[in-house]
Amino acid sequence: MIVSMLDPGEEPAWDAFVRDCPAATFFHLSGWRRVIEKAFGHRTFYLAARQAKEIRGVLPLTQIKSVLFGNSLISNAFCVHGGIATAEAEAADQLCFAALEIARELKVDGVEFRSSRVLRPDWVSKAGLYVNFRRPIAADVDANLKAIPRKQRAMVRKAIANGLTAEIDSDVDRLHHIYAESVRRLGTPVFPKRYFKLLKDEFGEACDVLTVLNGKQAIASVMNFYFRDEVLPYYGGGLAEARTLAGNDFMYWEVMRRACERGFKTFDFGRSKIGTGSYDFKRNWGFEPVALTYQYSVNNSKHIRDVNPLNPKYRMAVNLWRRLPLSVTKLVGPAIVRSIG
Fold first, then answer.
1. Could you report the per-residue pLDDT of 220-248, keeping only the tens digit for each?
2. Which pairing describes strands 217-227 and 2-5: parallel, antiparallel, or unpaired?
3. Which among 121, 145, 218, 286 is least surrounded, fewest beta carbons within 10 Å?
4. Which residue in 56, 94, 93, 95 sits closest to 75, CA to CA?
């Protein structure tokens, strides 16, 4: 078993392995490497374990180095999932060893694996912060609507009665504006528009943008990924008007309805922090939380990397961010968010 970097031209073999490996996710695809490097300028280390030239395991790593949040190797940065993807113990051990070697060479504070399972029993695990929400999609549209708990289903019907409509965008302009407004209210920096465009261009038919309209006004929008038989609404938000009109409920229902009609079988509602409005919203849809266990190998730091808006040390910055003009957050946000990962 030999571990080496992913070379140019090997992406099809890497992605074929990812699609066939049960432990791999959309966030293990090689396209993330190109997006992250172009959008943020970070160094990436995409490691493949090979035996007789055949890929037997993969590990996508991104170095996030900043004055604000330290120096870490993350699998995978800007993603819910990551870590080692393989079915073989030897490949897992070799990939882990290679990651730690890179960490020592780069003198990073530590290595972080993001997953729903414990990948390395000897590493420090941190659970209880993030959860993931997933549920099967029924083959019948009406069955999916009936599966939504009564109060939340009433919100979807309210949105329909309000005359809301949805359409697939050809670009990311409306998504970025709505998302910027939405995350500003949460006190979170916004990604650059270029990042969304790169994602859409890179993943092609496996990525689309659905926007909800009240008449001609766009009030909510979400970027969705498609992988195997799953749909993953990933970056989404709504304007203040969306709350009044049940626009966010309609948006996710439209994603589910369209995915059902296209034959997708799983709805991945993504990651949420426990105790947040996003967490409660997804629970109200009838989804049960599954804990995400993020694991760390601490190197040059005594503390586990904890970059999230709920961390008390960032409370003042979060409150200040919420009060800034939208134009300022769009200008300053991308420089900050690239260091969060």
1. 999 999 999 999 999 999 999 999 999 99
2. unpaired
3. 121
4. 95
> Checking DSSP bridges between strand 70-75 and strand 110-115, what pairing results, if any?
parallel
User: 311 in helix, strand or coil?
Assistant: coil
Query: Token pair for residue 15?
Result: 């992605």
Query: pLDDT digit string (tens) for 255-281?
Result: 999 999 999 999 999 888 888 888 999
By the 8 A CB rule, do 189 and 183 touch?
A: yes
Find the DSSP H helices in 50-107: 89-106
Q: Is the dihedral of CA 26, 28, 33, 36 positive or negative?
A: positive
Q: How far apart are CA 84 and CA 338, in angstroms?
A: 23
Half-sphere exposure of 341 (CA within 13 A, CB side): 31
Q: Is residue 273 a contact partner of residue 279, using CB atoms and an 8 Å limit?
A: yes
Tokens 């709920």 appear where?
310
Residue 274 exposure: Cα atoms within 13 Å on the Cβ side? 10
Does the predicted model carry a pTM greater than 0.85?
yes
Phi, psi of 167 (to 5 degrees): -145, 160
Task: Report helix angle 315-323 to 173-186, nearest 10.
Answer: 130
Q: How far apart are CA 54 and CA 21, in angstroms?
A: 13
Strand (E) positions, 137-241? Answer: 165-169, 207-214, 217-227, 230-238
26-40, 119-133, 195-209, 312-326: the lowest-pLDDT one = 312-326
CA distances from 221 to 174, 238, 253 (A): 7, 6, 12
